[in-house]
Amino acid sequence: xxxxxxxxxxxxxxxxxxxxxxxxxxxxxxxxxxxxxxxxxxxxxxxxxxxxxxxxxxxxxxxxxxxxxxxx
Length: 72
What we know:
Layout: E1 2-7, E2 10-15, E3 17-25, E4 28-37, E5 40-47, E6 51-59, E7 62-69
């Protein structure tokens, strides 16, 4: 899955393997997963109570989400 994160004017696209659009941790919903880095795998999770999550059209069969920070 691809996470397109827009935060304070910065756009970052993260390719996530073994991702989840709805992981529950301590009663909070998260979106994210694991990504490859030079040391193996890293993980990234975004709290859905802080981020708006929009499903984007699939590209080459890969699902993508756009995350934008909610207003304070």
